[in-house]
Design a protein that fits this description.
Number of strands: 5
Strand content: 5-15%
Number of helices: 12
CATH topology of the largest domain: Nucleotidyltransferase, domain 5
Radius of gyration: 23 Å
CATH superfamily of the largest domain: Ribonuclease H-like superfamily/Ribonuclease H
Structural class: alpha/beta
CATH architecture of the largest domain: 2-Layer Sandwich
Oligomer: single chain
Helix content: 55-70%
Order of helices and strands: HHHHEEHEHHEEHHHHH
Distance between the termini: 84 Å
């Protein structure tokens, strides 16, 4: 049976799996039409990309696979977001993923578009064995300092898991106050799949909070700066002053408070 080039193009657009692309490539390579051979080359490139992604995902979960071979059952990844902003909580997430998560495109949250983060956030929530998102609010940040507040947020996220993990992977930190074995991994959100998943949960959660704060106080541009000290945010602080949600111990906020009191 000879398919029209239009039908073949539709089949190519619909082919998302390795099996579907391989089957279509075999069909196209028997077709001598130039358009069919061009599609066959596109299938080959698509298969190369799928293989590269498969290898990348295998590497992302290699550390966890090693621990599982040693007898671990539940391995959690932990990450935090919101250390640098002037406003809002610092947020941490802990997540235990299933043995074979289906999370194409999983990566460090900072490397993903907002739409991809939101897609993966939903998939992680649906597939996770357990996850917990924890916060430390601005007054506590001011009391503890941001470094210790971030550690406290991560501790809360771990102890909030409904499954007690056998081991915890952490993005370049060691969490105090927990008795579970830990492995700090530098650039862990790009190097370890469970940490990457945690970074996405934390990032999406905090970004949604900034969108909600923007709806209440649009003059500060929180929908764009997410609370970070951009020029727009600093100028709004100088012009309008600090909000209750601002971190009083951070320099630009403290300066705005001084101006208010003078």
């Amino acid at each position: 049976m000879t398919y029209s080039l239009s039908d073949l193009q539709k089949r190519f657009r619909a082919a998302k799996s390795q099996a579907a692309l391989t089957q279509l490539q075999a069909l196209l390579e028997r077709d001598t039409r130039a358009g069919a051979l061009a599609l066959a080359r596109r299938c080959a490139k698509g298969l190369e990309k799928l293989e590269a992604e498969t290898q990348r995902m295998h590497k992302l979960f290699a550390r966890r696979a090693h621990l599982v071979l040693q007898g671990a059952q539940w391995v959690a990844g932990v990450d935090e977001v919101g250390v640098g902003p002037l406003v809002g909580p610092v947020v941490a997430a802990a997540v235990i993923l299933p043995d074979k998560p289906d999370l194409p495109g999983l990566n460090d949250s900072k490397k993903l578009t907002a739409a991809t983060r939101e897609r993966l956030d939903q998939a992680i929530r649906e597939q996770a064995v357990s996850f917990c998102i924890a916060e430390v609010d601005p007054p506590t940040i001011d009391q503890l300092n941001i470094y210790h507040a971030a550690l406290e947020a991560m501790r809360r996220a771990v102890v909030g898991l409904t499954k007690a993990p056998d081991h915890v992977f952490v993005d370049a930190r060691t969490i105090p106050g927990i008795q579970i074995p830990q492995t700090p991994i530098v650039h862990g959100d790009a190097e370890e799949g469970s940490i990457a998943a945690a970074s996405i949960l934390a990032k999406v959660h905090r970004d949604q909070q900034m969108q909600e704060l923007h709806a209440r106080f649009p003059e500060y541009g929180f929908d764009r700066n997410m609370g970070y000290p951009t020029q727009e945010h600093r100028e709004a602080l100088e012009r309008l002053g600090a909000l209750p949600e601002h971190r009083r111990s951070f320099g630009p906020v403290a300066a705005a408070r001084m101006r208010e009191l003078s």
